[in-house]
Amino acid sequence: ARRNTAERVDLSLVELSHLAIRPDSFGLAVVQERDRVGRGTLAGRWVWKKELRVAIEEVAIGAEGVLGATTEDGRLVIFDPAGAASDGYKAEPAEPLCLIEAVPGAPYPVAWHTLARRSQVLRGHDAKGRVIWESPVPWEGWQLQRLGPLILVSAPDGRALAYDGAGHLRSQCKATDTTKNEYGVGPTGEPCRVSRQGVHLICAGLDGRVRWRSVASEPIGPLAVGQGGVAVLIGRALCWFPSLE
């Protein structure tokens, strides 16, 4: 996107279940039918492919050509740049784990973050999967994502928690009367939540303080939040709100 270019990737991507892209350092991380995982190049060449005996839950691209994957039976599997796999961690009790690469500013040697939804535990792992820290989550979070320097744990009812890379809780928000929420980071590094409530588009901090509100004259459609603001489809028009503050 920075170079404003597009490129056709000539790979067979049938039955695609997971896709992660880091064109400058890794290429493509591809999972097909949840059990065939591989690394491909933008030129359309497979670097490696593996077939697992268990379904993959999530994947994340790490540093130096390493790929992390969590499996349906609760394992964190680490693939080296050549595709050799090693078990890094096994959740007890076993449950599928959410997975992201460590956020910027996470203390060394943290390389991955996982979330055990039912056990309600957020963890920081080193590059080989060893647990460095654990933090309790007060409710079952069902989504884990990177939000600038923060780790965001969110629930379907709108509740959200923001942790730093060392596992310390920094901010949180309560349930809302809408499940249509997107999250971003404002210019000062504070997490923000953008939600649709009827004809209202609302940007607020996780503390609930409204940053701005807009009333739409037509139905509000899909929206996306980035570092520079909010893009939202209102009626048939693509609109841009250039600030999260």
Distance between the termini: 24 Å
Unreliable segments of 5+ consecutive residues: none
How many E-type strands? 23
What is the helix tally?
0
Instruction: Please tell me the overall pLDDT.
Output: 93
- The proportion of residues forming helix, as a percent range, comes to under 10%
Give the helices and strands as they follow along the chain: EEEEEEEEEEEEEEEEEEEEEEE
Q: Report the sheet with the most strands, covering strand number, pairing sense and barrel closure.
A: 4 strands, antiparallel
**Alpha-beta classification:** mainly beta
Judging from the principal axes of the Cα atoms, what is the shape? globular
Rg (CA only): 19 Å
β-sheet strand percentage: over 45%
Widest sheet, order of strands: 1-2-3-4
Description:
The chain is mainly β and 245 residues long. Helices cover 0% and strands 53% of the residues. The chain contains no helices and 23 strands. It starts with 15 loop residues before the first strand and ends with a strand.
